[in-house]
Design brief:
The protein is an all-beta fold. The protein has no helices and 13 strands.
């Protein structure tokens, strides 16, 4: 589990990361790659990613490298500004529940779908889990419109110390 931050001045898409694992003497013991969860990462935002090593090697350190990250260009126009309000995160049995309300902050375009990505963190800021949920309102979500959400996820290790939310509204057909 990890996270990639967009430190550029442009929105990014197709962000692919390679994770390389090393043993205690610096020898390569495993590597794999994955795309981040969010289709679009605006400037200053972050997106989680997960890589599952089927046979878990005995590793001591790792290196994460960006393999690819494309400037979103016109694709960014397919996304609408959204925000999350009244957000609450709490432990529910063995899971972590995040709920709140997403709001369409744009003008003019109806959102056909809304992607919500929740990322959980431990006390040191390491990613402990993430979940993506897509809401597709029947009539779309007009500017100023709101809709509630609830997402359950099972974090790695104990209950998270913190969490973040990414909300991406998308114009239908784009």
């Amino acid at each position: 589990l990890g996270e990639v931050a967009n430190t550029t001045d442009v929105s990014l898409t197709n962000v692919q990361v390679k994770v390389t694992l090393f043993d205690s003497v610096g020898e390569l013991v495993g590597e794999d790659d994955a795309f981040v969860t969010a289709d679009l990462i605006p400037p200053g935002a972050s997106s989680p990613l997960g890589i599952l090593f089927i046979t878990a090697p005995d590793w001591a350190s790792y290196q994460m490298t960006i393999v690819r990250a494309d400037e979103a260009g016109g694709l960014a126009d397919a996304y609408i500004p959204f925000s999350a309000t009244e957000v609450d995160g709490r432990r529910v049995d063995s899971q972590f529940e995040v709920s709140g309300i997403v709001q369409h902050d744009g003008t003019g375009q109806v959102a056909g779908s809304v992607d919500i990505i929740v990322t959980t963190y431990d006390a040191e800021g390491a990613v402990t889990g993430f979940r993506q949920h897509t809401i597709k309102p029947e009539e779309g979500l007009p500017p100023g419109g709101t809709t509630p959400f609830t997402i359950l996820l099972t974090p790695h290790r104990d209950s998270p110390d913190d969490f973040s939310i990414i909300v991406l509204g998308r114009i239908p057909g784009m």
